[in-house]
Design a protein that fits this description.
Layout lengths: L6 H16 L3 E5 L6 H12 L7 E6 L2 H14 L5 E5 L2 E2 L6 E5 H4 L2 H5 L4 E7 L7 H9 L8 E5 L9 H4 L2 E5 L2 H6 L6 E8 L9 E2 L2 E2 L1 H11 L1 H12 L5 E4 L3 H13 L4 E4 L5 H13 L4 E4 L14 E4 L6 H9 L11 E8 L26 H27 L9 E2 L5 E4 L5 E6 L5 E8 L3 E3 L7 E2 H15 L2 H4 L12 H10 L9 H25 L1
Parallel strand pairs: 1-7, 1-8, 2-5, 2-6, 3-5, 6-7, 9-16, 12-14, 12-15, 13-14, 15-16
Antiparallel strand pairs: 3-4, 10-11, 17-18, 18-19, 19-20, 20-21, 20-22
Helix pairs in contact: 1-2, 2-3, 10-11, 17-18
Length: about 525
């Protein structure tokens, strides 16, 4: 057996198995491009086949490249596996332990009726699974009838349909910044290509994103493609790269513009003859072509680690699509120091477009020109540490009035609060231009509530009043600063939630420390949203 799984890949497998043991059977895993989701589900299949009671595993994908990759990885992980491919002209399911099948082929009733004894379902690029074809196929093979079903994707933000109806829970997620920090992905730097004549305000929105045809015309008419070629020559002349465009015509025009400045480039698109596309990809892999321009066919299933420049010549409002495009340049390779992201922008726009910071789930400001994503994240950590120090100083001032036994915390904006049960919390609302506070309670069902006697009090009096309320509303062990459970190590559930929320777990952190970090982020988000709503 080869391809020893990385620690986080084992964590993802364990999260799925634990999730299935707890009840839900349609579970999703979100891993960044380059995290090796094919390796994860190949090891998952290898470990579970003996427990399926003679039943088989079914891997569903929607593109030829994904089918071939999945079959090859399964065989590499376990050479003893009998892996069969089912697609238009192939039907190898009869004696296979694992069937790798095209969803388009399975959409044909007689093709899926021929496949029996499925005890495990894997869906690659599962953000497509809300489509009717997928729903019918998954339903037929038992995904709604208890058959363990796992979906894998780099993004779970598809807008056209109810993904929540398909995937009951996301049991594992990993942030790109964690992958960069651990050396599994390379760092990325961004540079904006601002085209003053590109007016994106003329481009309409359909299904939550910019209309491709109008966007392509705006890029071509504004001279943006010539600007892209010039920027590539000036900033990425030694980098192999991929350009993402909204239309086939734009991909062809972008390749021509690059060739005009001396950069070898070739366009690829979905309906391109298969042999021609394979030839273009092979030329890129061999270095005979420096840049591939494409109309959204390399967002999935494209594996060329030497790619070190990505051009987003397809401005988008979708963070998920942006992540798919940018992620194609983040795989490490020998001699590759980092990835460069060239982001095409108009002079201004009313549209809220995705950008470099959308690669991570953490709250970051847009990095300064030349600063990498990791450097921006490290600066954010230092800023947070300075803020935490200031909060600690103020807390020590409060302690001068008497030692509190309660677990008081502060949000990122400086609001004092106490967490209760089931997500509820009590907090202090500071009155403008004063040192007086009013007590408030928040719950998911009721929102913000005020007490019957809504009196503004000094800080220490307000805290005492909140502590009285907390004694009545929550068990002492939950709100006590010195509760015994707080001294132990963080639970796996806490760590998984922290990873999902993009919270770095400090070394030697206790269960109480991590609980505090999770509560601070959650309450900061709730109160921040309330503030934005009030200001609107």
């Amino acid at each position: 057996m080869s391809f020893t799984p990385r620690p986080y890949q084992l964590d993802a497998i364990e999260a799925l198995r634990r999730g299935w043991a707890d009840g839900p059977n349609r579970l999703a895993v979100v891993l960044p491009t380059g995290a090796g989701k094919t390796v994860v589900f190949s090891h998952l299949v290898h470990r579970m086949l003996d427990q399926l009671g003679g039943h088989r595993a079914l891997v569903i994908a929607h593109r030829e490249e994904l089918l071939a990759q999945a079959a090859a990885k399964l065989r590499a992980v376990d050479p003893q596996l009998r892996v069969g491919i089912v697609k238009a002209e192939r039907d190898e399911h009869q004696d296979a332990d694992v069937i790798v099948a095209s969803v388009q082929t399975l959409a044909v009733l007689k093709r899926r009726e021929a496949i029996r004894d499925i005890g495990l379902i894997i869906v690659d690029e599962c953000h497509h699974a809300a489509a009717r074809t997928y729903m019918e196929v998954l339903d037929y093979f038992g995904a709604w009838n208890g058959v363990p079903t796992a979906g894998f994707t780099a993004t779970m933000t598809r807008t056209d349909g109810g993904l929540a109806e398909v995937w009951e829970e996301v049991v594992f997620t990993l942030d790109i910044l964690d992958m960069i920090t651990d050396g599994y992905l390379c760092d990325v730097r961004g540079k904006r290509i601002t085209v003053d004549t590109l007016n994106l305000d003329t481009v309409r929105t359909r299904n939550g994103d910019l209309v491709e045809g109008q966007l392509g015309k705006a890029l071509e008419d504004s001279g943006a493609l010539e600007a892209i070629a010039g920027a590539y020559r000036d900033h990425a002349a030694d980098r192999p790269g991929v350009v993402f465009t909204p239309t086939v015509a734009t991909a062809k025009a972008a390749a021509a513009a690059l060739r005009a400045v001396g950069i070898t480039a070739a366009p690829v698109w979905g309906d391109m003859p298969r042999d021609d596309r394979r030839a273009a990809l092979a030329q890129f892999e061999a270095g005979d072509v420096q840049v591939l321009t494409n109309c959204m066919v390399l967002t999935e299933g494209f594996d060329a680690p030497h790619t070190s420049c990505i051009v987003i010549a397809r401005p988008t409002k979708s963070p998920g699509l942006y992540v798919q495009m940018a992620g194609r340049g983040l795989r490490p390779a020998p001699g590759k120091r980092d990835a460069l992201l060239l982001d095409v922008m108009g002079a201004s726009t009313r549209h809220k477009l995705a950008s470099l910071v959308d690669l991570t789930g953490r709250e970051l400001a847009q990095p300064e020109e030349g600063k990498s994503l990791r450097e921006a994240a490290e600066e954010a950590v230092r800023t947070e540490q300075r803020r935490a120090l200031a909060a600690r100083i103020e807390w020590e001032e409060v302690q001068l009035f008497g030692e509190s036994a309660f677990r008081w915390l502060r949000t990122e904006a400086g609001t004092w609060f106490l967490s209760l049960r089931q997500g509820e919390f009590l907090f202090l609302e500071r009155q403008p231009d004063s040192r007086l506070y009013r007590v408030r309670r928040w719950s998911q069902s009721e929102g913000v509530q005020s007490p019957a006697r809504d009196t503004a009090r000094p800080l220490t009096e307000s805290m005492e009043w909140v502590e009285q309320q907390a004694r009545a509303l929550a068990p002492a062990a939950f709100v006590a600063r010195e509760a015994r459970w707080r001294q132990g190590p963080p639970s796996s559930k806490q760590r998984g939630l922290a990873r999902y929320r993009g919270i770095a777990v400090p070394k030697r952190a206790t269960a109480g420390d991590l609980s505090d970090l999770l509560d601070i982020q959650r309450v900061s988000t709730v109160l921040g949203a309330l503030t934005e709503t009030a200001a609107a």
